[in-house]
Design goal:
Layout: H1 2-48, E1 59-60, H2 62-65, E2 72-75, E3 83-84, E4 98-101, H3 102-111, E5 115-116
Length: about 120
């Protein structure tokens, strides 16, 4: 009977330590995940400091944006109000801007509830 109690005690101690080790490992993984997220956030904060002049607000004038007057602009297909006259990347999401005609850009803007100068 004494050996059963001893075995039970040792089993409880073993299970408790295994649970504690699992909890520690879980906390370390969570900390590592949070650290990685902070690093990604820091990276995005850096990209946010980039030139955001191509992020358009208010009434968007495509004619004014089109400096070379070729009838085309570069627009982000995720952040529709990010428009440039030159190829590049969106300062908000880092996606490559897509070349579109004024009509396509205007249609995209209106479809996504942005105001466009006529």
């Amino acid at each position: 009977m004494k050996s059963i109690k001893c075995f039970s005690f040792l089993l409880i101690v073993f299970l408790f330590s295994a649970g504690f080790a699992f909890a520690q490992d879980s906390r370390q993984q969570k900390h590592s995940h949070n650290h990685n997220m902070e690093m990604k956030k820091d990276k995005s904060d850096t990209s946010m400091k980039q030139d955001t002049s191509i992020v358009r607000e208010g009434v968007i004038d495509l004619q004014e944006i089109d400096k070379n007057k070729d009838g085309k602009v570069y627009q982000d297909t995720m952040d529709w109000n990010v428009i440039s006259d030159e190829p590049g990347k969106c300062p908000l999401c880092d996606m490559k801007l897509k070349e579109v005609s004024h009509d396509q850009a205007k249609e995209n803007l209106i479809k996504h509830d942005f105001k466009v100068k006529e």
